[in-house]
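step 4 of 6: structure.
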Amino acid sequence: MTKNNKPYQFSFAIIALIFMLGLIMEFLFAETRINLEFPINLYVLIAFVNILFFSYYFLRENKIVKWLSSVPAAVAAISLFAALSLIMGFVPQEETGTGFYNITSSWMYLFSLLFLLLVLGMVTMKRLIPFRLKNVGFLLNHVGLWIALACGSLGASDVISLKMPLNEGEVSWKAYNTKGEVFELPVAIKLNDFSMELYPAKIVLVNKQDSKIVGKGKKYDFVSSEPGKNGSLSNYQIDVIEALEDAVYFEGVFREVHHPGSAPAAKISVTGEGFDSSVTGWISSGSYNQMAMNLDLGNGFFVGMTDPEPAKFASDVFVYTKDGKTETAIIEVNKPYSINHWKIYQSSYNEQMGKWSTESVVELVRDRWLPWVYIGIYLMLAGAIVIFWKGAKR
Amino acid sequence: MNWDLFPTLVLIIATLWIVAIPLFLIKKTLPKTVAAASMGAGIAVLAFFIVDLWLKLDRPPMRTLGETRLWYSFFLSFIGFITYLRWKHAWVPVYTIALSLVFLAINYFRPETHEKELMPALQSVWFVPHVIVYMISYALLAVASLVAARDLLIIVFRRKPADSLRLADNFVYLGFAFLTMGLLFGALWAKEAWGHYWTFDPKETWALITWLMYLIYMHIRYNRPKQIRWGQWFLAFAFLILLICWFGVNYLAVAQNSVHTYSG
């Protein structure tokens, strides 16, 4: 290499080359994907770290090594990664796609990532050897990002994510991946109970002509179905006289019955223009085995109730492991359950049956690289605090 | 209802702040002090409304874009206020008041559905820290962009040199620290809620792009501290990326399957 007077132009020329090379590879070998599974990805990681270490230790006067640990190379490496992210930001990504439709599986992304890890690694070595206390903030940020990025990407092929459908009272040990392949797991799960709490249903005004809720998208477009609540929908005043959470309709009225298929219902009165006195009646959102009920205002509008939305849902389960352990657990959204390196998440349920669903789907995830990614994340968080502390001072 | 107080309070805030603007621009101490007091009172009223809304909703008011705009207006004006107290740049609070009022005006003229419900995926200890640090970050980075944009206006219209990038850098570094925290809190939360810390969901992708933009800025600034002009343009432009990430992403075709679309 000759003396480099225009380091930014040079660095951007290199990433342009890397990008072109990636595009050519993508064009020729779109079907070939590198998938390194454990332990090969671990060997690759160790080799990578060693290459960084030795090339910096012995070749630090080499021009290539010097350039790789320079700011212009870093800016170029980040820019290439940002450019690929921008493509992802505009082109909808497809799991089975190629090229721009599936950036993270593409050769461009692989090359960009390797170049970023190389540059980030080299620049880290530069500040790591010899170690100085004033470089701590720099090292936390750069080492943290390197670890999170390297372990997250190399470990991606080791992430196992499976869905397991459960039925109340039954034991299950089979789970499925996204391709529908069956896996037998070292844990078995029995669903004791699936439970759901609901928010109060919403009382809304509906135009009969197009069956659309009046005023949707604006303020105050519903009245909550709770006893004593009132509010206005368009030109009508709604008063909730009675509100039932689980109601069954018979003999002209709704009664509170906690029974599968029961649905929320409310007795309301409506006053407004065109009525001499108020109109009173029952409305209900209905359920999978009960009709919805609306209150017809007789002028092209009716008052109805929307399906109540879930406030929380959870699976009460027994978890059996191969070594003979039995544990009870409640698996809830945002509260996964951990056992033997697996995390079990509440995923879905029979939506048609809603709160009366006796089915629950849990997701089992295992990621052996997770602790390393977390170490990277925590280092970066510590680094962010250092940035906050030191600010832009140089 | 929960937002009933809003129109009245916004008018009070707007009055207090608009009174403050000319006072800030008088080159004497007393009017400036009055201006700062008036601005502070407006911020206190806004804080009162947010607390009141939080109590009435029974959940943190951070879910809809309308609610996040409240926080943003609050932090933006608050940062302008602190900047004045700390560095005595009177034009910074003036700009932050103006921008803050724009966001309050959007809520005033375009009220959205202000639902009470919080879907299960949002019920997490990460919810409040994730949103708060993001709003602080966005506010700081907006001030950085305002500083840079002001430089550009002076250069273009008054044909005078202007260089406030060192001031802008203070906001960029602070904003970037919060941006990093917001991004990483989001990743830690995602692991608990959806089983993976990073899935290149459209909102995640745009958050990453925003983060990378400021990362590029900081690296070039570090490397070429004497070159100013590109940095002024870059900061002004980076704010557009930030806005796409914050709400523009909801309008992009890629966002159809985003796990973040509830925030609409």
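step 5 of 6: annotate
 - Chain A touches chain B through 59 residues (CB under 8 Å).
 - The mean pLDDT of chain A is 91.
step 6 of 6: archive
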